[in-house]
Design goal:
The protein has helices spanning 8-16, 20-26, 33-39, 47-51, 78-90, 104-113, 123-129, 135-148, 153-161; strands at residues 3-6, 28-32, 58-61, 98-100, 117-118. By secondary structure, it is α/β, with parallel strands linked by helices.
Length: 183
């Protein structure tokens, strides 16, 4: 099962679209402590839900202290910093891990450092391409995320045009397809 590191915005967007739990059951979801603290503040959307998360579904971790990631890392918010640091600490480059991040500066950092990432908007498409979701659910969940998120027309258009082949890296392992890598 691929490790997937998630930021606060993505977690909230997936929760609003009723996709957080399916995501946590499909991937080995890892959340930085700073992200968990942020999304469990009273008054935040879904705070009570996130407070009740079972640690078997989502592993909350703190990054290894002292490691200094490259580039514009320190211009990011603490949650994105910890999410990226965890990824860099825990992920060999070939293990299928990736980040779900909906912070523009964080996405830019990932692009510049060649870190595999998607935003929450692509989760329904990935589930659809994997056969975990039918077309109607994919369309409904995508619309819900667009409604809840702050995506530019350019990002929405790009997400709509990505093919299964372009997203293959992010597709969950499926026992019924005979996936065995990562075991």
């Amino acid at each position: 099962m691929s490790k997937v590191f998630i930021d606060a915005s993505s977690a909230i967007l997936l929760h609003r679209a009723d996709l957080f739990l399916p995501c946590a059951r499909t991937f080995s979801l890892v959340m930085a402590e700073a992200v968990f603290r942020e999304i469990t503040i009273d008054g935040y959307p879904g705070a009570s839900f996130f407070k009740t998360l079972d640690n078997r579904l989502v592993r909350v971790q703190h990054p290894v202290p002292g490691k200094k990631p490259p580039g514009e890392f320190y211009r990011l918010d603490r949650g994105e910093q910890e999410t990226l640091a965890l990824f860099l600490d825990c992920s060999p480059s070939s293990d299928g891990s990736f980040i779900i991040i909906d912070d523009g500066k964080g996405a830019k950092f990932c692009r510049n450092q060649r870190i595999p990432f998607i935003n929450a908007l692509l989760v329904p498409k990935i589930f659809w391409y994997s056969g975990l979701m039918d077309t109607k659910a994919y369309e409904d969940k995508t619309a819900k995320i667009i409604e809840s998120g702050r995506y530019s027309a350019k990002i929405i258009k790009k997400a709509g045009t990505l093919t299964k082949e372009e997203l293959t890296y992010f597709l969950p392992e499926r026992p019924d397809r005979g996936d065995t890598h990562g075991q």
